[in-house]
Amino acid sequence: MDLTPVWITLQLATVTTLILLLLGTPIAWWLAWSQARVRPVIEAIVALPLVLPPTVLGFYLLVMLSPETWLGGLWLKASGSALTFSFTGLVVGSVLYSLPFTVQPLQSAFMNVGRHTLEMGATLGASPIDRFINIVLPLSLRGYLVAAVLTFAHTVGEFGIVLMIGGNIPGKTQVLSIAIYEHVETIQYANAHWLSAGLLGFSFVVLLLVYTLNGRRGFRVS
Amino acid sequence: MMKTLSVQINRALPAFTLDLDTQFSLSGVTGILGPSGAGKTTLLRAIAGLDKQQTGRIQFGDALWFDSDRKMDMPTYQRAVGYVFQDARLLPFTNVAGNLRFADKRSRSRAGPINWDDVVAALDLSSLLERMPAGLSGGERQRVALARALLTRPQLLLLDEPLSANDIQRKKELLPYIRRLSTHFSVPMIYVSHALDEMVALSDRLLVLREGQSIVHDTTEAVLQRLDLPEVSAPRDAGTIFVAHVIAHDKGLQLSTLRLGRQNVFVPGLLAPVHTEVRLQIHSHDVAIALVAPTALSIRNILAGRIVDIDANPQTPYAEVLIDIEDGMLRSRITRASCIELGLAVGDEVYALIKTVSVNNTAVF
Fold first, then answer.
1. φ, ψ for residue B45, nearest 5 deg
2. Among B144, B206, B291, B328, which has the minimal tally of Cβ within 10 Å of its Cβ?
């Protein structure tokens, strides 16, 4: 059995998770503290992937990223390859699709830290960055762990958006879920079973991990 | 010239406007007394830079901290203040030593009388250093918070009702700690509370805040002599305070003799070494009045004085009488009935009978 899709999936999930933890931190911080009137708007946009069929998001991304548009064209000029039907395109799609799974746990972790704790840090002479690194991060460790696990797992499980943007190119954009679909289409049920059972087990372990972490006293994330 | 903290702020609060223009002396302890919701905490937070909604000007010595006209607002972490909150707000993920180290590492200057060992000793923390905050009692937590605030080497320490948490059982034991800290580490303090007894035990100067306005800002002795301030009379009076000299101990009878101006006061117990000074508090309900020097009485402390003010409040059964005993003022709370029967008037020579003298273990160093 060809395990390349497993490898591609793990790569995609790892890259997506790393990017999202970096990108999600300032977004979650802003959402946790901002009093701006546009905050609910931003919050709604971040949460969109939770309710939208992945094919809708995938369709719009496909249209936006194709080399005919200015964005896709710019990328083609800069990097020499198109965004659509490429691994990079998959990363872009996954980042958008998994955004709420990173932002929401981080946002509630930051809100849990509370204004009082930040004030205390300031009176001890800690600058805003100092406070973030030495007070907020240690207090939000569980939040980061939950965000990372959920993001990783959600990226592993995605199907529709990957199929729309990346297509089904073996060795390049064919991820686990798509490989299973193809095995079923070509009536290779044994292979489909192996991959499906693997994914099922993986998902269960991940959720078990999240709920165990979340249930620990003193570190409740939300 | 003595450095001062000059505060001129104006901020609309839901029920009234906090409107203040005053100078805080930067030595000893200044108390801000007032009922809950008088604007005390708002004032303290403005000084620390935690709130931004006010207009006005805050200047600490030569350093301008806040000036709304010039859009100048120094962030809290750059102001030389330490702050002790009502809830201790310790870092939960590290032990007591970790909490202290957090402050110590970020402290403003290494010079001065504050150092780790001294602070740990002064607040009795050596046995707590390895403990986590979650396992500490309310009083222990506040001691850690105090030590942590001191280790930032502040030039001014702000304390916001640090003893108001419900689980601080032995408040009275923490008060002397706080007073000693100010003297020992020469850190001026501004101490906010609605509890008059805390102020009496602690403060050198007192600012009474009522609905956002400063009613009086003077030495604590002077404020406690005012009969027109409900804040220092009702519901339980504070009486007045004195600084007295210990002149003798009788070891057999366990009695100390203290010199108060030209008269002597006897206090049970051997409180402080001879020739040192202690702070006495005499509650007004412990002071009775006689027109002639009484004899054959168990009360030992009988001071001669002259009535300088009488405030008979028709809403209550009581009259507050202020008696000048030459080296300070005594407050006496007697019934209005007694006041009328004795025919007391301003200028009368009387004898003040003092049932109890309490000594704040906070010896004046």
1. -65, -35
2. B291
